[in-house]
User: Fold these one by one.
Assistant:
Number 1:
Amino acid sequence: MRMRVAIVHYWFVGMRGGEKVVEALCELFPQAHIYCHVYRPVKVSQTIGRHDIHTTFVQKLPAAHRLYQSYLPLMPIALEQLDLREYDLVISSESGPAKGVVVGPDTLHICYCHSPMRYVWDMYPQYFNASSFIKKLLMIPLVHYLKIWDRCSADRVDHYIANSEFVAKRIQKFYKRSSTVINPPVHVSEFSITKNIDDYYLLIGQLVEYKRADLAVDAFNLTGKRLVIIGEGEQLNELKKKAGQNIEILGRQSFDVIKKHYSSCKALIFPGVEDFGIVPLEAMASGRPVIAFRKGGALETVVYGVTGIFFNEQTPQSLNTAINSFEARESEFLPELIRKHAEQFDKEIFKDKIQSFVDSCMSRQ
């Protein structure tokens, strides 16, 4: 009999790392039904869109497509309204509330964890300090409630997959659960190497506080070197105001524009702490080195002196020291070798590992 599979994701409002994982899961399980809180069809790939997609009641709330994060306190309740008893396998994709679904006693629940909710656990002080006075008053009781629910719902999962060793440690710390590390997929074949390298550095990603695009802007303002920034987010206008003439902020761009910039930049700047970080590997798949802060997922993808270098402090001075060090040995970074390293994280390898993990869990069910 054909296995009945459900994939639970927090929301579909774009195609970032979490959605790329779901896309690969959809290729593995073409018969799967998908459940989420909010779904914008125009924002997802055809691979995801061709599946049977169900939403929680959050989808029907006012302006949910834009204000979905404001409805976070309602999402635990929404998840528990889903009826998943008919499925043999449920795979939850966790970063926002997704793993808290209730399944039948014979259903296998595997959670692919991109991260325990950052704004609830270790990054709560950072989000809290950046909030307005009114928002702070609301956050205190709501986050307390979410922590209790998140910890309790962690026990509903049968097996955890962590997207990195960094996240595996956080799962153990906050949920007291062990996990198997399977790195997320990179579509290496979509990227290519070019010999036409331009004289600029590149930063790509959401322009939010923890990504630290502001650090890169401050560093490049000091040196006058060229920096191109691609992305959008709450810091966009602030960064435009403080950026010098040597810094070009392009905002949101198409995938074709992003690929072109990956392949032609001198190096990618990666100044934040990420749970894993797909962007550095996409740059490597394009043959370009990475200059990354020495913490988090970058330690698992960047090979010092081969695919990039690190800087040790999140200060403009430390970043500029690393850039100067890179420029002194730029010829040592070989595009073909960098791309070969990225191939270890290819989508097909990810799918093989996931299939083997699921098969092993099902055989023990």
Note: The domain at 5-185+347-364 is CATH 3.40.50.2000 (Rossmann fold).
Number 2:
Amino acid sequence: MNSTIPRITIFRIRNLAWLAVLIATLLPAAAAPLVQTNETQVQTNYTLTQVVPRSIFNQPANPKEGCDPFFPTSVRPYASAVVPNAPTTDFSSLSMQGISGSLDHRLAIINNVTFAVGDEAEVFTPQGRIRIRCIVITDDSTVIEAAGQRQILHYKPR
């Protein structure tokens, strides 16, 4: 006859022992009488109001006021907060090469890219790429928008 205790019973005994220790440590704290002093009075009926502290971060104007804690040698925090003027878009290199489509669905070809009304795409120019959006297409012109500026391109047949 084997006198070993099954493994599951050992785990149950161990868990009960831990539970007894936990109860023994919590009972004296729960049974302790409420202490009332002149400075603080502990009440049984109270409402918890949690105040969330606000973090305030000041941007340093120079190295004496502070630095970036992760990049202490960086001068980025002291950069001017002035936003440079937006560059103006040069429309001189845009040319309308053709108009096609039916009367109710016009298409315009601008720098080898085909646009319908509402389409937005990048076109290549000698100065680089320009992202434009087609606003209106008429029989001989197109209104486009790039970087918040509108321009009319006229079709000049060759």
Note: The CA atoms of residues 27 and 130 lie 74 Å apart.
